[in-house]
Design brief:
425 residues; Threonyl-tRNA Synthetase, Chain A, domain 2; Diaminopimelate Epimerase, Chain A, domain 1; 3 domains; six-stranded antiparallel beta barrel
């Protein structure tokens, strides 16, 4: 860690600066990799994206670290030894500071509240996530964590940073900051003297970020001066990911934008129902109940229609092996009504049903009365494949869909041919 080069660690609020170009390497496609004597540009690391901005008016498209130091990828050419003016995109920088400081706060509160240790952090373009090692927190725990984190935000606790050597680092770790202590101590380890994060192997100097009286963690990210500048912490949701609990959240300006977007959406929905947004849960429940009633009525009407249709088309179109065969193509309806119709017709004794629905949403339904020595599932697989459709089912009932709707007659002819081969004409 080149603390002498990385000036952003000393003053993350510096958005304009002057520095001398230490070296330049061509990076292809009109880009130069520029290294400065001191830089305020933050390189991508630790889950936090890099800064953007300009060097002498030339756009900085990415910032990273390599063996040479902080690498600024610049559109254009700069020369070693020249003095350049740097300008950082402050809106992007401050947003990242809010999110990263909010992550430190949430990680501490999750540790105190649920003994859940943060194992990774990702600061995305829209939202942020932390992965927690342990059981998934309940909705009640998430609410408690959010409330407690925002209480610390409103307390406006100072956030400080400093670089410590190995001796002081060992003293902090011995006071409860080691990873094993963290996992074991849980809620008891809440003192600001406790170091939350794991300690790097063989480290000589490390940067500590402290939320006064609340949290200490090794970190080389940029942070706000106090918890009040984090703004509001809002947990958006949680899901299980590879054995971890992934918590999604936003802070500060992102939380304000999230609130504004959801408020506009709620207001628009409420307006469409001519009600207050606070009444939307009641309206949604009422609509859900009405939808369930309408669905039941639709299903009842569908079954009644299927019975009428079955009566109209139940007359056999042929026979095979002493069994009646009903083979028909319907031009209207849907897969549900086709199934209902086939089910009704096959209630007749010694009957084989081969139905198809033509059109843009083709469907096939095959069925037979009990005791017919056929396998409708196998018959469906073979017939559906003829028109590029897929299907299957049981010995006495099968269905399929998709494929070329203009060729359903071909599928039915194929099915009837297989029936006759199996039963005899």
């Amino acid at each position: 860690m080149r603390f002498d080069e990385q000036a952003y660690l000393d003053d993350p609020y510096r958005a304009e600066f002057t520095s001398r170009v230490r070296s330049v390497e061509p990076a292809g496609e009109g880009l130069d990799a520029v290294y400065l004597e001191r830089t305020y540009f933050y390189p991508e690391s630790g889950g936090q994206p890099d800064d953007r901005g300009t060097l002498d008016g030339k756009r900085v498209v990415s910032v990273s670290e390599d063996s040479g130091g902080v690498r600024h990828l610049v559109e254009g050419t700069l020369s070693p030894g020249e003095e350049v003016e740097g300008a950082i995109d402050w809106g992007r920088r401050f947003d990242h500071m809010q999110q990263h400081s909010g992550q430190h706060l949430l990680s501490r509160v999750f540790l105190e509240t649920g003994r859940l240790r943060t194992v990774s952090f990702h600061l995305g373009a829209e939202t942020c996530t932390i992965d927690l090692d342990g059981p998934a927190p309940s909705p009640e725990t998430l609410d408690a964590v959010e409330e407690r984190a925002n209480g610390i935000v409103f307390a406006n606790a100072p956030i400080r940073h400093r670089v410590v050597g190995a001796v002081e680092l060992e003293a902090l770790a011995a006071n409860g900051g080691g990873a094993r202590d963290e996992e074991r101590a849980g809620a008891a380890a809440v003192s600001g003297a406790v170091l939350r994060s794991r300690l790097p192997e063989g480290v000589e100097r490390v940067r500590i970020v402290e939320i006064e009286g609340r949290d200490r963690s090794t970190c080389c990210g940029t942070h706000v001066r106090s918890t009040g500048e984090i703004g509001v912490v809002k947990i958006l949701g949680m899901e299980r990911m590879k054995g971890l609990a992934r918590v999604e959240f936003v802070c500060g300006g992102r939380a304000a934008r999230d609130y504004a977007a959801k408020h506009r959406l709620l207001a628009a929905l409420a307006g469409s129902f001519t009600t207050d947004w606070r009444e939307l849960p009641r309206v949604a429940a009422k609509l859900g109940e009405e939808a369930r009633d309408l669905r039941k009525k639709y299903e009842d009407l569908g079954r009644e229609l299927a019975r009428y249709r079955a009566a109209e088309i139940a007359a056999p179109t042929g026979s095979a092996g002493g069994f009646a065969v009903v083979k028909r193509i319907l031009e209207s309806g849907d897969a549900r009504s086709l199934r209902e119709t086939a089910s009704t017709i096959r209630e007749s004794e010694r009957t084989i049903v081969l139905l198809a629905l033509a059109g843009p949403n083709p469907a096939l339904v095959f069925g037979c009365s009990p005791g017919v020595p056929l396998d409708m599932g196998e018959l469906m697989k073979s017939s559906a494949a003829r028109i590029g459709a897929r299907g299957g089912g049981t010995r006495d009932f099968a269905q399929g869909g998709g494929g070329d709707g203009a060729r359903v007659a071909e599928a039915l002819d194929h099915a009837e041919r297989l029936v006759r081969e199996a039963l005899g004409s």
